[in-house]
Amino acid sequence: MKHHLIPAASDVEVFPDTTVFDVADLVKCKIAELEAEGSDDAFFVCDVGDIIKKDIAWREMLPRVTPFYAVKCNTDETVIRTLVNLGLGFDCASKGEIAQVLKHGVSPARIIYANPCKQKSFLKYAAKYGVDLMTFDNEAELIKIKELYPNARLVLRILPTLQVQVQCELGNKFGCHPDNVLQLLMKAKELNLNVMGISFHVGSGVEEAKAFSYAVQQAKDAWDLAVEMGFEMTLLDIGGGFPGQESSPITFEEIAIVLNHALDYHFPKDSGVRIIAEPGRYYVASAFTLTCNIIAKRTVARDIPENDDFKVGSPDCHHKQVLTQNDEPSHMYYLNDGLYGSFNSLMYDHAKVEPRVLNDSPYSFSSSVWGPTCDGLDCIMQECRLPEMEVGQWMYFRDMGAYTMCAGSTFNGMPRPSCFYICTSQLWTKLYPDEISDKRRCTKLPNHHHVDQSNVELQEIVGPISCC
Ligand code: PLP
Asked: Does residue 374 carry a catalytic annotation?
């Protein structure tokens, strides 16, 4: 089905094709702009081109699987608009997310309400707007759906039982254990509901590709059972769990190879089964870089020497101090975003972050990095090595697009960072073929690197954008 392009975000800066973005250069450039305006606020830079490249790679490597972006991962309007125009479907978890996607003119047929435990009024909202594709994994949900949306198309979410390392566990809360599938399907039959698909989620940030092949096999077992019971099965939803950044323990390519094999074996092309997925972090993690200002600094002794008389800060400490190799000072840096803001991902998403600085000093010191609130819990990094920095300088963090700002608060009155968007014109015209004009072209980057080999390869794989 074709869809119409919605207008591009007016705030995306489009750079000439010859530009190869160096994140440090971009960050420097934005800092210079902000400082000229007198601002010291934390900010994101989002490379929209990175999202487009991810989509190109998805369609290359998983050609049978239509992505339905998991909106919860990053609800940024420019991200949603970009993905709408790339033709993705959307995995929504609530009335709010459904409304956000519908607002862009997305057809309800491009949405899956993929929350197996739905609030009744949200379910009524889905029924009102014709968002009829939804997941379930328990009897109470079936009873609710029977009452409020009896014609909905239902996708049974099973629990993949292979134990593998994941960044974020989901199986402790969702999924019907394979042993209970028969009973749940019998309940659906008794209620005369329309079960037409099977879904699973292997866990977010999965570290082993075999999690997918095993889950596909378990989905096939549930599928066969449903077919035997007379359900007309047409949809397989392989959920999320795909890596979104280079530092992930497993690559997207490794997963795609294993997954394609399992799909072709259990759900071959000629079966006519429609296959969708719900990727979240895959699309957005690496597109976002967060830059924070150092708003305060404290230097402390890292280790107290064995001499008990020595107390940091006591008037005579210098006289009594016995220098040892542990006496190197430690710097505590306070940034203007923290655990209650974008770095909530350290707690909720078990994320790992790496502070980077624009200072190229060869000397590094024991350091810790803290958020801006008055809570002692608000610590971004307890121990790392950094060149010595001063108040007013900046630190930046790459790969900050997934499960960051979407769950951040303004605790202590701390504002959320604003976001700047960039893209190269080559990728931008993939999205908006008619839109590029000299007016939109921006040449503000300090260093314009020339096209390198990776961009040449990219040009070769860029194909027509398909629609779902
Ligand atoms: N689908 C569902 C139902 C989820 O709960 C999640 C994440 O929690 C996702 C998709 C997205 O997962 P990921 O970001 O690992 O791709």
From this structure: yes
The alpha-carbon radius of gyration of the chain (Å, integer) is 25
* CA dist., res. 248 & res. 205, Å (int): 8
Number of CB atoms found within 10 A of residue 251's CB? 13
How many Cα atoms within 13 Å fall on the side-chain side of residue 86? 30
- If asked whether residues 190 and 293 sit together in one domain, one would say no
Q: Whose CA is nearest to atom 3 of ligand 1?
A: 114
Return the residue matching tokens 């006519």.
272
Residues 269 and 341 in one domain: no
408 lines ligand 1 (CB under 6 A): no
Distance of alpha carbon 418 from alpha carbon 415, whole angstroms: 9
* 70 CA from centroid of ligand 1 (Å): 6
Residue 309 lies in a domain: yes
Chain-centre distance for alpha carbon 465 = 22
Whether residue 307 is predicted with pLDDT greater than 80 in this model: the reply is no
Please check whether residue 187 lies inside any domain of the structure. yes
Read off the DSSP letter of residue 465. Answer: P
Ligand 1 mutation target, pool 54, 71, 72, 283, most atoms within 8 A of CB: 72
Nearest CA owner, ligand 1 atom 7: 204
With a 6 Å cutoff on the Cβ, whether 175 touches ligand 1 is no
Enclosing domain of residue 241: 49-279
Residues 258 and 395 in one domain: no
The C-alpha atoms of residue 160 and residue 2 are separated, in whole angstroms, by 34
Other C-beta atoms within 10 Å of 14: how many?
Answer: 26
- Complex ipTM over 0.95: yes
Whether ligand 1 lies within 6 angstroms of the CB of 401 is answered as no
197 with 231: CB under 8 angstroms? no
Query: Has residue 426 got a pLDDT over 90?
Result: no
398 and 267, same structural domain?
Answer: no
- Kindly report the average pLDDT of the chain as a whole number: 88
Indicate the number of domains in the chain. 2
Supply φ then ψ for residue 79, to 5 degrees.
Answer: -60, -50
